[in-house]
Amino acid sequence: MQDKMEKADIVRDLVADRERDQIKIKKLTELTSHLMANNSLLQLCQSLNEGQSIPTSAITQVVHENIAIQLAIYDVISVMFNNVDSCRRVDKVIKSLSLNRLHTPATADEERAEKDFDDRFEALIDSLKKEGAGDRLLKAGALDSFHKHGGQSSAASSNDKK
Predict the structure, then answer these.
(1) How far apart are CA 150 and CA 115, in angstroms?
(2) Which among 11, 101, 124, 160 has most CB atoms closer than 10 A?
(3) What is the largest distance, in Å, between two alpha-carbon atoms of the chain?
(4) pLDDT at position 53, please?
(5) Burial grade of 65 (CB within 10 A; 0-12, 13-18, 19 or more)
(6) What is the pLDDT of residues 33-77, one digit of tens each?
(7) pTM of the entire structure?
(8) Which residues lie closer than 8 Å to 114 by C-beta, 6 or more apart?
(9) Are 69 and 134 in contact (CB under 8 A)?
(10) How far apart are CA 67 and CA 58, in angstroms?
(11) Counting Cβ atoms within 10 Å, is residue 93 exposed (0-12), middle (13-18) or buried (19+)?
(12) Close Cβ partners of 86 (under 8 Å, ≥ 6 residues apart)
């Protein structure tokens, strides 16, 4: 009887992870669709192609905003697939099974941590869909480390020094 209850807990935890992943993937898909439909970089290219005169500072701003949004999306995706940061249950299941321990279902605190993460994730995705997201990211210093290293990301820059 205990074995069946434990299997049910494992299945429930794995299904919870899968459902959370599906919601996050849906949100990311909505974000990418929104960004494609409202891509200021494509609009800029179209304007330039039509022969419109656009100040260099405006071009630079649009390019920087797009890079900042792309970097934010990369960060969101990497956190989403990091089991620890995103409070995924699968690690706990694997640890229990690999150590031949009884698996315990998620606690109320763990479920609360999952919900807090999911709420922050959704808020970030929603903020990236809002008008002026790139400008807000730039004002928050999204490209500061990029510019400090001569156009390379800080990770690429530190790898070059090794």
Answers:
(1) 39
(2) 124
(3) 75
(4) 93
(5) buried
(6) 998 888 888 889 999 999 999 999 999 999 999 889 888 888 888
(7) 0.70
(8) 16, 20, 87, 89, 106
(9) yes
(10) 14
(11) middle
(12) 20, 79, 80, 117, 121
- Distance between CA 14 and CA 103 in Å, rounded? 12
Count Cβ atoms below 10 Å from residue 84 Cβ, excluding itself.
Answer: 8
Instruction: Give 10-residue mean pLDDT values along the chain (162 residues).
Output: 77 92 92 88 92 92 90 85 76 87 88 90 89 86 67 44 40
Q: How many helices (H) and strands (E) does the chain have?
A: 8, 0
- In the numeric block, the tokens 């995103």 are attached to 86
Q: For residue 55, which amino acid is it?
A: P
Q: What tokens does 56 get?
A: 């260099």
